[in-house]
Amino acid sequence: MPRLRPLPAVTRRTLWTGLAVAVLVAVLLSVPGDGGDDGSCGGVRVTGWRAADGMNAEFTRYGNDNSRLDDWTGGDGTRSVRLPDGRTLWLSADTFLDEVHGGRTRRPDPVWVRNSGLVMGSDARLRRTLLGGSADRPGALFPGTATGDGREVWRWPVQAVVEPRRPGSAEKVVRVLLWQREAGSPPWIFGVPRASEVATLSLPDLRVEGIETVHQPGGSDVERRVLYGTSALTEGGWTYVFGADEGSVSGKASRAHVARVPEGELADPSAWEYWAGDGAEGSGWQRDPDRSEPILVGRTEQRGATGTYTVARRGDTWLLMTMDAGAPDGRGVTDVVSYWSCAPTGPWHGPAKVARPPLPAGSGEAGAVPYNPQAHAEFDARGELLLGYDVNVLGDSRAIHRNVEFYRPRFLRLKTGPVNS
To answer: What is the pTM of this model?
Structure first.
């Protein structure tokens, strides 16, 4: 097929938008949880890990395949959801398309879009890339807009779930949580947070039917605007949606929050309830998002989670994993740690070390870093949990084109066990 017409050249700011949320240090305040630490679960920690060679190889194969020039060659923000027919939908934020030369390099100005989807067959083989736009000029799967004065407004997909089209319906759809951001000036060089949205995709064809705003934080304190969707799990008839604010943009603490929505109503903003703490009048689950209170992850003002943490269920325990923001040795961006709780609202116990994710060869010299650890529980095998993480390069915006492995997800297999094991 003919070469695609490139989009405007990627600036350094654009390359690093995918890292913006991952470097937000979230020092999270302690509040008693919904169900709390009442001994109803035993606690879980990661007891070992190994590289998920098969999944790593599959993303390399697909990214390097030049049989088409309008599909994924690299991206970040990597999350996944299992579809009813056994396929898996993977979601990417800023995505590069075009051609890979020699299995290693892209041209300096490749085609790119703000987001995309990847469809993996039930055999764990990636089949196609989902995009918007047209055949000769691809666009984002979830298109952006612009402000009245012409600044870009884009959408990053985060976690997705499959749920009934409406409560009690036999028909299933995919709901994709989106973060809407707009171009801003310093300190908002990675975009100003605008809203949390939910897109509905039809099944089985994965056509975007519409996008609804479910939460639009207001107020003049932009640093405390919460965006929801870094993780989402369905349990007991509810979908629990985790998010965080962005206070660290000016050196303050970011804080994590959690909301819940009845199954089948994720795209209905009136159905959302927000955790407002425990023990005081007006606490518990509340419909008013302004009543939301942070949940515990860190124990000190120097240590906590990043804004792209992930939450998984292991037995009766909630397991939260994050890059170790504020680690004692000052190398927190290198390590993944975990916290556990008996309830989605905490309290959270930890941190416990998970892994120092391995990086591609040459990462040290290039300045490549890991970020955005995300659990992919649908790929559990022999009791091992699949954990993905993204890679990008700090400081040199063209390094990810000289080596495509510097802007692709990588995967680990985690063994888990009781906290006292």
So the answer is: 0.90
